[in-house]
Amino acid sequence: MAVSPIPQVAGGTMQISNVQIVLMLIDEHLIADVTWRYWLTSLVLQPAVNNKRVFLPVALDATAFNLPYALREFNFLRPTGLPLPQNDPPGPSAALEIVVRSLLKQLTEALCRLLLGGRETPLVGNTGVPHTIVEGSTPKITIFLSHAKADGTMPARRIRDYIYSQTQLAAFYDENDIPFGAAFSRVLEANIGSSNQTAALIAVRSARYATRPWCRREFATFRRPRQEQTSPGDAERWTLNPTIIVDALDEGSQTFGLPEFGNAPVFRWAEEAQNPEEQVVTTILRDTLLASFHAAVGSCIPSAPDSIVLNWLPDPTTLLHIPRVRAATEDLRILYPGRGLSGLELDILDEFFPRLTLHSFEAMVS
Amino acid sequence: MSGGGKYRSRGVPRVIGLSVSYQRENLLARGLGLEHLRELLLRLSRPLLRHGASLAYAGHWRETEDNFTYDLLRMINAEQEDNSHGGADTGLNIGRLYNHSPWPDFLDITPRIEAQWINSCRIVRISQELAGIASDDRVSDGESQSDSNRARLNVALVLSAMRRMAVEGMTVAIPDVPSPETVPPISARVLLGGKLQGFSGFLPGVFEEALVALEHKLPLYVLGGFGGAAETLAQALLAPASIRPDAFSFEWHRANSSNFEQLVNFSQTCDLPSGVRTSAQALDALYQLIGSATSNLVAALNTGLNEAQTKELLTTRDMGRAVKLVLSGLKTKFGLELLPS
Description:
The complex is a heterodimer. Chain A is built from twelve helices and twelve strands. In chain A, helix 4 (94-120) packs across helix 8. Chain A has two domains: 17-120, no CATH class; 142-365, Rossmann fold. By secondary structure, chain A is of the alpha/beta class. Chain A has helices spanning 28-32, 34-45, 69-72, 94-120, 154-166, 184-192, 213-222, 276-300, 316-319, 323-327, 343-352, 361-365; strands at 19-26, 52-59, 142-147, 170-172, 198-205, 226-228, 236-239, 243-247, 266-268, 307-310, 332-336, 356-360. Chain A has a five-stranded parallel beta sheet with strand order 4-3-5-8-9, with helices on both faces. In chain A, strands 6-7-10-11-12 form a five-stranded mixed beta sheet, sandwiched between helices. In chain A, strands 1-2 form a two-stranded parallel ribbon. Chain B is α/β, with parallel strands linked by helices. Chain B has one domain (96-334). Chain B contains 13 helices and eight strands. Chain B is globular and about 55 Å long. Chain B starts with 14 loop residues before the first strand and ends in a 7-residue tail after the last helix. The chains are: A alpha/beta, B alpha/beta.
């Protein structure tokens, strides 16, 4: 292989963080503690050096809203299930589990919003003004629900209802989300194609999903990587928003596989399971957060022009969307998130793409 | 109407000390009740807060009907909210409450209580250590409610220290914070009611507060028309200097206050922190100050009122009038202009 050597990082360590997130777990003890109040106020008033600093206050009891003035006007994360019952035992309990789950969900959503917003406006830099997730103009995160109505609407509708009742997300569900008179294809393209309006897609794979051209078009369009703008001489950077396939096949029914699904994760829908819609939405949110994070990390990794930086785990379907990879006329290095693919996956990719070498972010920064 | 300079204080932010306590019999004898007292307190406090003055009130934190701590806090909260919602009052610098809380009273203050009122109130805990009590002489928190002589003596010592610190101001070291927090001294003291018997310190609280205020030449507003120790103090200020009222004699208190003699006797067997006066010394000092004040009340009380107004404040039973006089005096002293009624 004739790829250039991997660029070395001065000093042996790499500074890849440019956002400082202050997660404040606020209860009466913090509020009443003068030291905490002093340091939190200092943190708000002192500009971060080379960083954007974002505050995420979590209200653990009713006194949380008595934060110092500079922090009081933020919209707090408010996990459900609080206060805990008075007779709740110390340590893990069912009641505490509800609180933790709720907080994790809200936190994931908030971080998604932060990182997705940051992809459109650079996260680097500091205005001296405390940053919040919701700066007033940050749009809601939209999740596209791709489903074949011919097989019924139930899993998709339950997921949509959950999105609207339990989260601050938005859902693109069906033609009701398309303005009257608008061209279907253009609206879909705007939502799932080149723009950043939709952060993730949930495909409800029922028996006839694979036979519905609009469904397949939605999925294929969404799972097409997008090239980010980079400076001349820099590596190409590509991003892909996450997808999840909800397997809603009835027992004994038959369908066929779709190549565009690639290595997208699959969730088995079970009506009798407890809150399957919560699991689906939580999973896709977590993947969205990770995708945004990986895109941000990837943009900080030094690389040469013969490198292509991805924010997802590569598979043949998605790699083939990248023209330089598809052309197969040069040796290229693919940098991808995580700690590394398995040997089996690397072997398969090597068979498809013999001129590529694959390196994980972990290997690059360690 | 804007919230501009019209209602602003010309002076620096002040802390006004309030000693207001409810004695049912005193007030009933004057045809007054708890609600009248509460109204007086709020009518007095609201304009002060709106001028950026803070209040110092050493009330406890138990939910009892005669406790004014929560009334003051609710008012401060409401004023702060009005101030933050836009409209006529926006832009005012609303004062807050300094609650000097003596040991062991502050042991009742939970983090929840403190957190609930943190933006309206700074709780200043006066510990045994702050009062200068030697470590070997301190009583553990668990024994604070005991009837031991040591516990009673330490309560009295802490109360004296608290009253002195309120007048002199203090700094509070905060762990991990580079510079200590300053608790400003009070600029004036308002006295109303107060126990003459059954008190916990070396002398009635109102007397001790009057003593340190007079010694520091602070403006002292004695509302003598509503009974209690403040009335006794007012009567002494208006009486001829040659007559020493009973309530200013050590013997009278020994005869009329339960536990007083026990406290005094035990204190004589102990090494007291430096600067602490015995009951007899404190009563003598107070009487001397009152004696010298009677010849020139206006100068001694330093209230900003003229002689007629000064005497009226010491005797009036009209709460509205008393409030007006206090605010008028504070306006003269500190530039706190009265709000339109």
